[in-house]
Amino acid sequence: MQKRSFQTKAIRNQARLSSFREHSTPIYLTSSFSFQSAEQGKRIFDGVENGNLYSRFSNPNTNEFIETLCLLEKCESGIATASGMAAVYTSLVSFLSYGDHIVVSKNSFGNTLYIVTSILPKMGVEYTLVELDDNEAWKSAIQTNTKLLYLETPSNPLLKVADLAFIGNLCKENNIISIVDNCFATPYLQNPSNFGIDIIVHSATKYIDGQGRVLGGAILGPESLIQYCYDFIRKTGACLSPFNAWILSKSLETLAIRMERHSSNALAIAKELQNCKYVRRVVYPHLKSHSHFLLAKKQMRSGGGIVSFELDFEEKKIFKFLNALELFTLTANLGDSRSIATHPQSTTHSKLSPQEQKNAGISPQLIRLSIGLEEVGDLIADIVNALNKIK
User: Fold this and answer.
1) Backbone phi, then psi, for 324, in 5-degree steps?
2) The architecture CATH gives domain 255-388
3) Of the N and C termini of the chain, which has fewer Cβ atoms inside 10 Å?
4) How far apart are CA 48 and CA 72, in angstroms?
5) What percent of the chain has pLDDT over 90?
6) Hey, where are the domains in the chain?
7) CA distance linking residue 200 with residue 150, whole number of Å
8) Is the pLDDT score of 22 beyond 80?
9) Pairing outcome for strands 306-311 and 366-370
10) Which of 155, 151, 149, 152 is nearest to 170 (CA)?
11) Which fold has domain 6-252?
12) How far is the C-alpha of 219 from the C-alpha of 180, rounded, in Å?
């Protein structure tokens, strides 16, 4: 078969047509599926014959979504979940038992850290937190009972970058499962599987949807590992709805085009912020000032749509700046066609203790911008105008 590009695979992979010969995949809003005979029902339940049973297990819409995402992430198998956090939680607990140990990036999303530090210990799971970009710390943290390593790269919201090849090799050498949250990069900008990563997790709510409409998540990897996650979801119920899967499948068709625009807009804004008088520092993976610029260029097609920066003001003026923005929605989401501004310390990472926030590098001056698809000149003018109002 002819080798096909990312964009072509995202568009042309589709569920099998029904007898109605539809051009666009319909929404299969059904809780269960009927059998042509009692014998067929038995064969499907016994696994002798493939077929849908119940939408908590599988559905044509969720199947189409996950099959397309597997193609784009270059993975053998996958399972769709009700949200990104359902994917994160499932990817962890499906492989862990009492007495296991995990190593996790301390630069992970706040709710991920809550699972690691507050929920898993109640199940008898030990953890060690390390800096995402400290290879020696990852290596030193491994113990005889270490079961898996978990990280997100680029990280949220400081956009630190992990050396995926190092992590992949380290886990293979120690027979440890590697899990990477690829939400910020998406499969268009980065494929962790190229670097030997076992499991890839997504919050499809973000860039995969791209318009802030639905919740969803995904776990991708080899069939031998995904089966554990599938069994957990099948029995606990955090499955993706057919409607949300249908939306997300349609969104994948435009992912490449959107990520190109998100990234080009974000790079232009990051460069502009570097020249702003009241900006203390700017963080963006494809800025030359980024601590791992060369690594980010190697791993990522472009820098993505998130720009984080610190203003040289106290919190009151930080809020005044945010309130003065006209083209940036104030919300905790990201990856939308509309640009978004977020104050992580008081929102997404507010449930962390002051010390945990400090450890994660979340300061009161930090602002995270999710750059949308608007005209970049209008966005830059809006930022400059808001800054001028707080001088």
Assistant:
1) -85, -15
2) Alpha-Beta Complex (3.90)
3) N
4) 29
5) 80
6) 6-252, 255-388
7) 10
8) no
9) antiparallel
10) 149
11) Aspartate Aminotransferase; domain 2 (3.40.640)
12) 10
